[in-house]
């Protein structure tokens, strides 16, 4: 026989459960604008029916429902979209960093414009043409000297600025590395908290959200693969478990080691080595003692920065050095054949101080690293414009050598103009590609993000509808109590009073 | 697909900021007048721009060189013209003096005039243009004729060359070695030598062979005329080069402009279109943030 008060209990459960649902609705509404929040849903479950199937069950019609309970509170989220989002975010990180580096380079090179190296060389050429026409004119000589200084200084400026940005990139790599390590520490801490909560049968949804957001951020910096470890022997099927995060090579083919180990609740730090002689980042390492990741391709922003630091900038710097050297050596060669106004010959126009061998002659065999940053006008020219060797003879009016000097710009060995145009062209194409791919991954990332929002985002209208639904169910349960109350009143106070 | 209000407002924000981004690009194009502002905007335009600029600089420089060439050649021509008249006058006087009826004193007067004309010839040979002696080869800082020196007429015949077009060097001076000459000997010769001998002959009491000077003067005059003709021919060539370089300047400017100048009509049309789209985006934004269900539930 069932209890007289059975109905009260059923209705009470209804009220309690609807109240829980309203609580969750309120929480959803409150967090409608919280970044990384996934809407939550109460999983309603029926309580055990009466009577339970057993040997000594009462012989009554059964089974009868005994009400409802809030079985669990679950995040509404699609894990597959997280994987997609993180893949695109990773590409965005890589191409974003590359595009940024190349954009800065374009700003420095400042071509095509009236202030770039190309124009400075044109002006220098022009001053040499004027000198060829007026070799006896000290005004024309001053202009040649100043324009020559401008060429040297433009080379210096380009080289030094690129070097500064490269140095800046090193600190960005360092900051990014620290960020990776900080994120993995936080994820590991959340893993620990989750491993303490899940075995009790709870779903720590806020921790899941927070952890997913950290993983999203991590995915921009390096390429990762997330797998999950159960935190107890018999976890709730809805439990997300502890995350193990592997570092994956940029092309996605190779696992480079575990950043966060969910099973061991441990994490490893990423580190890197910069070779002091070559100035290049030679390798990334993982953990302590460091295990060599051997490949530089860790993907994401870290790879983008490494690429710029190791390749893009050194290539441009080296090209500038080569160009400056080829030009200066050839120019000096032609210049030393000519005669100055004081009828001396064998004078250098450009000078270079090589570290450790000050005042050494520039030849085609001297080292070129950093040449562009050290290119200057030779003291002979700096102090005395008469020393500019404009003529091939001792006549003051002979401008034939100035003519030959002006031809160095188009010299077939140096290929000054075409080489420089090639350098700028390469940079432009590389930059264009980086910007295009950055835009592409950005579009894809926002497409995935909006699909993720479509599933996990809070819709206020929907919450309002739910609220009304739950409110009505709550009210109805309450009304059910009133009905049962009236029934009990009938039984207790209204029955067995006949003849009174 | 389930769409929430935050998705709508995110989209709206994204579209509006994309619109502003496009408008910023248009603004840049309109205010600079250039299609591109950085090489990655269009690598081909950027690279071409660099070489077209160089071409333009070169052409501009050649124009500058041309005006210097004109300056030299016109001044040389004018000086040679004067020299020719002087020589003709000397010849005239010589013809007059060869008339045997003249008295000594009359010949001396002619000799005086010839002396003055010789001085004038010296000053013509020493013509300076912008501080440079144009009749001394490439030794432009030394006076070519100076009778206080042991070798009064210098013999620098080197050409003064100017590049007037890529790889084309043209001598802009005349060769003074063939015209302003002086050879000292038992009887001085060359232009100045001949005149000096003529003066001497006129001053002597019994001149016998004044006639012979007419032939000598004619020879010098002929050299002068032929050098001037040669200069004239070169001047013509310079004019031809000038015409070509001027044409190149126009072409270089046009190509540079075609390559990198923004097509203003098009950019303004784009701007107009973007304005419309932006207004629509803002309008949609304002409309899409609608009252929600909440506003209807009381």
TrEMBL record, chain A:
Q: What PROSITE patterns is this protein classified in?
A: FLAGELLA_BB_ROD
GO cellular component, as recorded: bacterial-type flagellum hook; extracellular region
**Molecular function GO labels:** structural molecule activity
Question: Keywords assigned by UniProt?
Answer: Bacterial flagellum, Cell projection, Cilium, Coiled coil, Flagellum, Secreted
Q: Which residues form a coiled coil?
A: 166-193
Q: Kindly indicate whether the keyword Coiled coil belongs to this entry.
A: yes
Query: Which InterPro entries has this protein been placed in?
Result: Flag_bb_rod_N (IPR001444), Flagellar_basal_body_rod_CS (IPR019776), Flg_bb/hook_C_dom (IPR010930), FlgK (IPR002371), FlgK_helical (IPR053927)
The Flagellar basal body rod protein N-terminal domain covers: 8-37
Q: What is its main location?
A: other
* Annotated compartments: Bacterial flagellum; Secreted
Q: Mind listing the GO biological process terms from this record?
A: bacterial-type flagellum assembly
Tell me where in this chain the Flagellar hook-associated protein FlgK helical domain is found.
102-350
Limits of the Flagellar basal-body/hook protein C-terminal domain: 454-493
Q: Which family does it belong to?
A: Belongs to the flagella basal body rod proteins family.
Full protein name? Flagellar hook-associated protein 1
Lineage summary: Bacteria, Bacillati, Bacillota, Bacilli, Bacillales
From TrEMBL, chain B:
Please give the Gene Ontology molecular function terms for this protein.
structural molecule activity
Which UniProt key words apply to this protein? Bacterial flagellum, Cell projection, Cilium, Flagellum
In its UniProt entry, what is this protein called? Flagellar hook-associated protein FlgL
**Ion transport: is it a keyword of this entry?**
no
Q: Which PANTHER family match?
A: FLAGELLAR HOOK-ASSOCIATED PROTEIN 3 (PTHR42792:SF1), FLAGELLIN (PTHR42792)
Give the family per the record: Belongs to the bacterial flagellin family.
GO BP, one example? bacterial-type flagellum-dependent cell motility
Q: Membrane: present as a keyword of the record?
A: no
Where is the protein found, in the record's own terms?
A: Bacterial flagellum
Where would one find the signal peptide in this protein?
A: none
Residue span(s) of domain Flagellin N-terminal? 5-140
Note the InterPro entries from the entry.
Answer: Flagell_FlgL, Flagellin, Flagellin_C, Flagellin_N
From which source organism is this entry?
A: Fictibacillus arsenicus
Q: Where is the Flagellin C-terminal domain?
A: 215-297
Per the UniProt record, the lineage of the source organism begins with: Bacteria, Bacillati, Bacillota, Bacilli, Bacillales
Q: Which Pfam families match?
A: Flagellin_C (PF00700), Flagellin_N (PF00669)
Q: Which GO terms describe its cellular component?
A: bacterial-type flagellum hook
What sections of the sequence does the record tag as coiled-coil? Answer: none
* Principal subcellular localisation of the protein: other
């Amino acid at each position: 026989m069932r209890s007289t008060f059975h109905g009260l209990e059923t209705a009470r459960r209804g009220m309690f459960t609807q109240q829980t649902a309203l609580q969750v609705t309120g929480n959803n509404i409150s967090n409608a604008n919280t970044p990384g929040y996934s809407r939550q849903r109460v999983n309603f479950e029926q309580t055990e029916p009466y009577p339970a199937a057993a040997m000594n069950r009462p012989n009554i019609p059964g089974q009868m429902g005994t009400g409802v309970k809030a079985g669990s509170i679950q995040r509404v989220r699609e894990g597959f979209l997280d994987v997609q989002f993180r893949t695109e975010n990773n590409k965005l990180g890589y191409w974003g960093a590359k595009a940024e580096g190349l954009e800065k380079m374009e700003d420095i090179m400042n071509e095509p414009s009236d202030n770039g190296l190309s124009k400075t060389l044109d002006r220098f050429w022009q001053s040499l043409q004027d000198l060829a026409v007026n070799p006896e004119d000290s005004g024309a000589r001053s202009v040649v000297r100043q324009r020559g200084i401008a060429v040297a200084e433009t080379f210096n400026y380009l080289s030094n600025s690129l070097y500064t940005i490269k140095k800046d990139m090193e600190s960005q790599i360092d900051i990014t590395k620290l960020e990776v390590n900080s994120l993995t520490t936080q994820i590991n801490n959340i893993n620990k908290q989750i491993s303490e909560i899940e075995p009790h049968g709870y779903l720590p949804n806020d921790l899941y959200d927070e952890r997913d957001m950290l993983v999203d951020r991590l995915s921009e910096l390096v390429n990762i693969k997330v797998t999950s470890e159960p935190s107890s022997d018999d976890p709730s099927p809805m439990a997300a478990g502890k995350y193990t995060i592997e570092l994956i090579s940029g092309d996605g083919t190779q696992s480079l080691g575990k950043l966060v180990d969910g099973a061991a609740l441990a994490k490893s730090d990423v580190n890197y080595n910069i070779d002091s002689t070559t100035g290049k980042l030679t390798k990334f390492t993982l953990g302590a003692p460091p295990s060599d990741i051997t490949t530089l391709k860790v993907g994401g922003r870290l790879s983008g920065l490494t690429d710029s630091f190791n390749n893009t900038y050194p290539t441009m710097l080296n090209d500038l050095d080569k160009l400056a050297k080829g030009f200066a050596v050839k120019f000096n060669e032609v210049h030393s054949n000519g005669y100055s106004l004081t009828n001396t010959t064998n004078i250098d126009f450009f000078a270079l101080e090589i570290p450790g061998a000050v005042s050494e002659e520039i030849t085609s065999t001297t080292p070129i690293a950093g040449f562009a940053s050290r290119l200057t006008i030779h003291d002979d020219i700096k102090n005395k414009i008469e020393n500019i060797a404009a003529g091939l003879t001792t006549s003051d009016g002979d401008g034939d050598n100035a003519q030959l000097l002006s031809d160095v710009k188009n010299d077939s060995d140096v290929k000054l103009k075409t080489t420089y145009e090639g350098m700028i062209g390469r940079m432009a194409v590389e930059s264009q590609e980086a910007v295009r791919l950055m835009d592409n991954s950005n579009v894809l990332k926002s497409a995935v993000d909006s699909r993720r929002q479509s599933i996990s985002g809070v819709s206020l209208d929907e919450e309002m509808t739910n609220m009304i639904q739950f409110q009505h169910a709550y009210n109805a349960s309450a009304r059910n109590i009133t009905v049962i109350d009236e029934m009990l009143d009938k039984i207790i106070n209204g029955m067995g009073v006949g003849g009174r | 697909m389930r769409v929430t209000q935050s998705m709508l407002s995110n989209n709206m924000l994204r579209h509006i900021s994309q619109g502003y981004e496009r408008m910023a690009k248009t603004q840049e194009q309109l205010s600079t007048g250039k299609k591109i502002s950085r090489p990655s905007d269009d690598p081909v335009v950027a690279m071409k721009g660099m070489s077209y600029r160089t071409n333009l600089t070169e052409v501009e420089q050649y124009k500058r060189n041309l005006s210097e060439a004109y300056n030299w050649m016109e001044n040389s021509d004018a000086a040679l013209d004067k020299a020719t008249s002087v020589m003709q006058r000397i010849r005239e006087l010589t013809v007059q003096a060869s008339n045997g009826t003249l008295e000594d004193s009359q010949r001396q007067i002619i000799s005086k005039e010839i002396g003055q004309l010789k001085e004038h010839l010296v000053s013509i040979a020493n013509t300076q243009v912008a501080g440079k002696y144009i009749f001394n080869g490439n030794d432009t800082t030394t006076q070519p004729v100076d009778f206080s020196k042991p070798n009064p007429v210098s013999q620098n015949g080197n050409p003064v060359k100017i590049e007037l077009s890529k790889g084309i060097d043209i001598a802009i001076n005349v060769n003074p070695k063939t015209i302003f000459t002086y050879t000292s000997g038992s009887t001085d010769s060359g232009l100045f030598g001949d005149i000096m001998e003529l003066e001497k002959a006129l001053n002597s009491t019994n001149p016998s062979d004044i006639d012979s000077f007419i032939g000598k003067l004619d020879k010098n005059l002929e050299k002068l005329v032929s050098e001037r003709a040669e200069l004239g021919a070169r001047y013509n060539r310079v004019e031809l080069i000038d015409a070509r370089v001027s044409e190149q300047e126009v072409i270089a400017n046009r190509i540079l402009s075609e390559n990198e100048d923004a097509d203003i009509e098009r950019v303004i049309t784009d701007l107009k279109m973007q304005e419309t789209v932006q207004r629509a985006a803002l309008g949609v934004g304002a409309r899409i943030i609608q009252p929600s269900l909440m506003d209807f539930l009381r």
